[in-house]
Amino acid sequence: MEVFHGPSTYEREPSRHPALKINSKEPFNAEPPVDELVRSYVTSVDMFYKRNHGPVPVLEDISLYRLEVGGLASNRCSLSMDAIKQLPKHTVVATIQCAGNRRTAMSMTRKVKGVGWGLAALGNGIWSGARLSDVLEIVGIPKYSRVSAYGGKHVEFVSVDKCKEENGGPYKGSIPLFQATNPEADVILAYEMNGEELSRDHGFPLRVVVPGVLGARSVKWLRNINIIAEECQGFFMQKDYKMFPPSVDWDNVNWGSRRPLMDFPVQCAICSPEDGSYLDGKGKVTVKGYALSGGGRGIERVDVSADGGKTWTEAKLAQGPKSGLGYIPDDDDHRDKWAWVLWEASIEVHLPADIVAKAVDTSANVQAEHVETIWNLRGVLNNSWHRIHINGTSKQLHSNL
Q1: CA distance 65 to 331
Q2: Ranges for the Oxidoreductase molybdopterin-binding domain (predicted)?
């Protein structure tokens, strides 16, 4: 029996929280109710979205686990979990977001292919593990390297799971070598999530966490790290998770014409009240949501409108927890670098109303106003203004006649 393997059936799946909205059962893909996202700055393990491409891998004996590191490096190494945990432990607060978050809304404009994610294909976690740059030094690659001694320019992560898209092979992805060897990029090999051992759904026993980059590059169930000359040639780097203009469809797509997606764009969404809600009367309504941006760019502000975008109110950005969770870094600036912000705004509404939210990041990037302008055949990176419609009760509607 293999010590660590990707099963071909779904008979040994982990248990999941019953409140999750299941978008596909096999492989299991699910997201929490949207209002759960704004209950806590740190998303619980149970309520963190689940993204799988096959059955969840099984590790029979952690004492026999080995991470193989090699490729175009001066040395090779095989690391046990004990050896990895002997390296300096680093903790980073980072939001992981699926590239397909908010895909359903994009599909309403024109049909796209992919899991039908709503607003909750993301979560904010506290990740702890060894810096990738420390591990790469073991195989002879110094920090801040752009190329290895043998011509390596990228770092490939190989999982143990079995994906139909890879013809039953493992999930793979890569990042540039400079990002991998730069300690300030905070790329880690995580073995803890929210202060506890990784769960199976989230990559036990070891996963990559690449902050500020779409979740497809934070490979779970890690088995190999390879230093390679070019980008990973796997399916999810070369024939998926790429951005095409609205004019490209499945009849004329040329996958080689676009680069793999990395940093996610500025994003925000309204989590409360929910679209289609019924509220009594008129007056103040408290609107809550999340906002984030990729590449280490924080959120400068969130604007909320109660009249479909004619006038705007600036939302209050909530801070992360100040106490009670000692494993969260004390440096607020560092914490916000890779993490979302939760926000809320008290706005005057006259029902029925169309409420809109948009975010601006610290580089002055702003969300696209209309989803039609960013439509793409895979339905990725929908960061258009988020719009919800709020209804009045029947009594309120009657009074408006």
Answers
A1: 34
A2: 53-235
Q: In the prediction, which pLDDT does 394 show?
A: 46
Same domain, 253 and 279: no
Q: Where residue 1 falls among pLDDT bands split at 50, 70, 90?
A: low
Looking at the structure, do residues 209 and 271 belong to the same domain, yes or no?
A: no
Single-letter amino acid code for the residue at 12: R
pLDDT in tens, 132-182: 999 999 999 999 999 999 999 999 999 999 999 999 999 999 999 999 999
Report residue 38's pLDDT band, with 50, 70 and 90 as the boundaries: very high
In a domain, 207, yes or no: yes
* 267-272 vs 283-292, strand pairing mode: antiparallel
